[in-house]
Amino acid sequence: MKKIKEHVNAAGRTVPESVNGKPAIPFKGIGKYRPDGNKYGPGIPVCSDYPSDGDKLVPSIKDALIRSGLRDGMTISTHHHFRNGDMLANTVFDIAHEMGIKDLVWFPSASFPCHTHLIPYLEDGTIHHIEGSMNGPLGRFTSEGKMRGVGVLRSHGGRYQAVQDGEVRIDIAVIGAASADPFGNANGLYGPSASGLLGFALVDSQYADKVIVVTDNLVDFPCVPWQIQGNYVDYTVVVDKVGDPGQIVSGTTRITTSPDRLYLAELTGQFCDQAGIIRDGFSFQTGAGGTSLAVGEYFRKIMKEKNIKARFARGGSNTYLVSMLEEGLMDYLLDGQTFDLAGVKSMAENPKHVWTSPFTSYNYHSKGNFAGMVDVVILGATEIDVNFNANVVTHSDGYLLHGIGGWQNCLFSKTVILPVPLFRDRVPVIRDRVTTLCGPGELIDVIITERGIAINPLRTDLISAVKKSGLPLRTIEQLKKEAEQICGKPSPAKFKEKVVAVVKWVDGTLLDVVRLID
Amino acid sequence: MFRIYRITIFANSLINLKNMSKTSTAGNHGEDVRSDCLVKISLSTKGGIKLKLESRVERMYGDQIRSLIKDMLSFFQIKHADILLQDSGALDFVLAARIEAAIRQLIGDTREYLLPSADNKVIPSDRDRTRFTRLYIPGNTPKLMLNAGIHKADCIILDLEDSVAPAKKEEARLLVRNALRTVNFFKSEKMVRINQLPQGLEDLDIIIPQNVNVILIPKTETPVQVKMVADRIVKVDKGSKVWIIPIIESALGIENAFLIASASPKIVAVAIGLEDYTADIGVNRTKSGEESLYARLRLVNACKAAGVQPLDSVFTDVADAAGLKESAVRSKSLGFEGMGCIHPRQIGIVQECFMPGSEETEKACRIVMAFEAAESKGLGVVSLGSKMIDRPVVKRALTTITLAERFGILKKNWRQGYEKD
Q1: Same structural domain for residues B218 and B315?
Q2: Residue that finishes a domain, picked among B354, B377, B400
Q3: Which residue of chain B comes nearest to A451, CA vs CA?
Q4: What is the pLDDT of residue B19?
Q5: Which domain holds residue B329?
Q6: A53: which of A176, A265, B190, B303 is 20 to 30 A away, CA to CA?
Q7: Are A239 and A263 part of one and the same domain?
Q8: In this predicted complex, what is the ipTM?
Q9: Does A426 sit within 8 Å of B35, measured CB to CB?
Q10: H-run or E-run covering A334
């Protein structure tokens, strides 16, 4: 096999010139990459090709896939509104496998443990590679070099960008919806499989060559609100069950009970309070991790004590944010994805609980987005280095185990805080150099650990705001040193040369790569 | 010392032969176990060392773990053995304690393998220091030890008694020893609750030389038990500055409360254990605690008479924050000077209840100012309003002020706010 040339990008990471046979642009710096030309456009459809009575129902998913022209090498997209309760992706590739189709590209908005089912299809070549996220067993599979192509990791915003500028051309988008009409209007709000919203599928509906809507709750036209517009849809299919909303609450969507993590969350709340971030009319976003959720609870406590109301919070909605909305602690909940059934219910019933999409929130190829308007965002990381660079996709042993989600996009918030334990089961979180770079340090402001808080020296305003607060302030080097004193200095991950996955920045450039585990 | 060591080795060689086919096990491993490891060792007569390492952190720490094992085996002069180590991210002090525990079972060697002590110095604790909160940490659960210090309890108790299963007593003792040497508990006073006597005396041999501040004696019923502990401490370390806190947990103990509280100059406090006490008198423990009121008052009085701190029991419902607060307020009002905590989330609540209130602080300031003014005028007798102030009153006021300063209720320069009369 011919060796692909590599070069060093603006973040100091060595990246290949091409990925899966397509040329790739190295990361040039934040906001530096400015593509020219026009956005990608799908072919021009003609409405007279579609039934004028609006009935696009076909008997089965297989039938819809065949009518969509499913063949070798196509790019197929699915979405993660059901999180670990997704059934559609597995079904679609079961059919492709049965039909003997090969070399498909799976383009999910995220993958979950339920998708371990797809590993045999990656092995037998039904799926050539994944562009999206590779979590848990799929990540391990990728890291061990077993995937045929190179995995591509993108943020939620980056996925939107890749579709808009034509970097990824979706041949068939399969959208699972809790409610739909025969025309293809669809939403995630109502029905036995209600999952909240369909924001991640929006771009697919607009840009994919063929769009299939699958539901287990067919309603007569009109299905409102039409989060997905039937005017973009080719075929509709009714199945017995489209997804298991009970599995939406998976893994990281419950508040931590660990006393150490709760302390970390409390410290984060105190920091935001002391730094003057929690003030009337402010806005915040907490992620899905157990610690982030606990931070939200401390926000609630501080806001109640001081009689403070937020203008908006950004979700991932969950029972905690919903109750804050209902208690009047915020005017609006702007929600990109529901993390539990309380979120689903609230979105369906409360007009102040607004569904959004990666277009409104994160999109790079647009005239601004919401991410930068958020006062403070609380995120997680697997590793952070002394230059405040952070990693969310690999562990320190080098294995790919997580997707990026909205993490990169959220870094554009006014203040980015990462509460992380100083070490996890002997593995220090603060390192000399992150194993995989996912977020440049210049966008990351505050690292909060149970043993001290490090503020990015670039944020002189924050440093002076909390100088006299009595909070345990440290330098990031001090934190790193303490972690190594406790754990010992870990050996760096060992890799072979082969690139198994690439990490895209929000603009589509190559930020870093994940290499084959040695 | 040297002579004893040689005899031990001689004895070992006999035991070695007997234990050739025996496998020893120490530590914990399983789905939910973190920061711990399970070691299995069986000795053999030939074939060298066969090590099987299964570790979550193999790729980062495999070499370091192997070199630790090698060093320990050479320390204990083991040349032929089959070893399985299943590690879930244990730190060196945990690995070493587990391996040592497994080796001890096989060769009966009493030498101790000690890792270098961390640079957190041994700070002898003051007799009168604050002991509002003392956090119990199970003595055989390393995960809970690592960050115990971040929760700012006044005291941390590494427990060898009730929280450790009988079969795990030996390995817990080594783990606690290593934790005392290596884990940074920050400003918390380091306490160990030893086992009931006589087993607890063996704990002392291992624990006393290792950075411990206070020994807690469970289920104390007579002053003789306290004396046995005090004597053993001196036997292990003649100049030991380790304090003693007897825990009274029975009807007999309560009847002997004053004798126990004054049994040794090493005693700084006496604690009450209400779970066992209520069981002993045959009643259920209630949240309001009427059933133990007599015992608690008796204990407080005995402590005050003996000049030591009376410390209250633990509140066992971790989820009931309001109940805990009520209990702590009541405890303080009875004269207790602290409570046990079984979860870090209890610390803040208990501490707040035992902290001096603003009225109490204000009064203390006025007492101290009046006393200092009188002293500067050379007056022997001090009065505040219609009340006479003597030295203990001033001392208590100063204690309150020190506490108030420590908790930020009072600024260091508080005197500026008071005019000297």
Answers
A1: yes
A2: B354
A3: B150
A4: 54
A5: 133-354
A6: A176
A7: no
A8: 0.89
A9: yes
A10: strand A330-338
Residues B347 and B362 in one domain: no
Which residues in chain A touch residue B184, judged by CB atoms under 8 angstroms apart?
Answer: 486
- In-domain check, residue A11: no
CA distance A110 to chain B (A): 26
Name residues 279-308 of chain A within 8 A of B (Cβ): none
Please tell me whether residues A230 and A346 are part of one structural domain: no
Contact criterion met (CB below 8 Å) for A395 and A451 = no
Judge whether residue B1 has pLDDT over 50: no
Helical (H) or strand (E) element with B306: helix B293-306
Nearest CB among A425, A451, A493 relative to B150 is that of A451
Interface test with B, best of A394, A426, A484, A515 (most B CBs within 10 A): A426
Of A118-122, A216-220, B406-410, least confident by mean pLDDT is B406-410
Q: Is A375 in the same domain as A481?
A: yes
Over residues B176-186, the pLDDT tens digits come to 999 999 999 99
Model pLDDT for residues B286-339, shown as the tens digit of each residue? 988 999 999 999 999 999 999 999 999 999 999 999 999 999 999 999 999 999
Residue B338 — left, alpha, or beta (φ > 0 → left; ψ -120 to 50 → alpha)? left
Residue A28 within a domain: no
SS3 call for A484: helix
The answer on B372 and B334 residing in a single domain is no
Instruction: Fill in the DSSP letter of residue A410.
Output: H
Chain B residues with CB inside 8 Å of A397's CB?
57-60
Same domain, residue pair B392 and B413: yes
* CB nearest A426 (choices: B57, B63, B408): B57
Cβ <8 Å between B118 and A426? no
Beta bridge partners of A473: A453
Position A502 in a domain: no
Supply the CATH number for residue A410's domain: 3.40.1080.10
Burial of A362 (0-12, 13-18, 19+ CB in 10 A): buried
Same domain, B327 and B273: yes
Is B383 a residue whose pLDDT tops 90? no
How many contacts (CB atoms, under 8 Å) link A and B?
Answer: 62
Same domain, B345 and B367: no
pLDDT tens digit sequence for A330-358 = 999 999 998 888 999 999 999 999 999 99
Q: Mean per-residue pLDDT for A141-165?
A: 97
Token digits of residue B226: 């306290």
Q: Flag whether residue B88 sits within 8 Å of chain A, measured between CB atoms.
A: yes
Residue A168 falls inside a structural domain: yes
Q: Is B151 on the interface with A (CB under 8 A)?
A: yes
Q: Decide which of B72, B107, B142 is a domain's last residue.
A: B107
Whether residue A459 sits in one domain with residue A345? yes
Task: Tell whether B120 is covered by a domain.
Answer: no
Residues A322 and A361 in one domain: yes
Q: Which two three-digit tokens encode residue A382? A: 């697997």
Q: What is the domain extent for residue A58? A: 53-246
Number of domains present in the structure of chain A:
2
Contact in structure between B242 and B217 (CB atoms under 8 Å)? no
Residues of chain A in contact with residue B60, where contact means CB-CB under 8 angstroms, are 396-397, 426-427, 490-491, 493
- How many angstroms away from the CA of A64 is the closest CA of chain B? 44
Per-residue pLDDT tens for A363-401? 999 999 999 999 999 999 999 999 999 999 999 999 999
Distance between CA atoms of A87 and A114, rounded to whole angstroms? 8
Mark which residues 443-472 of A lie under 8 Å from B by CB: 450-451, 470
CA A512 to chain centre: 17
Q: Kindly report the nearest CA distance between residue A499 and chain B, in angstroms.
A: 19
Spell out the SS3 assignment of B183-227: CCCCCCEEEEECCCCCHHHHHHHHHCCCCCCEEEECCCCCHHHHH
Domain co-membership, A228 together with A178: yes
B353 in contact with A, Cβ within 8 Å: no
Residue B121 within a domain: no
CB atoms B61 and A490 under 8 Å: yes
For residue B10, pLDDT over 50 is answered with no
- Indicate whether A278 and A235 sit together in one domain: no
Are β-strands B37-43 and B23-27 bridged in parallel, bridged antiparallel, or unpaired?
antiparallel
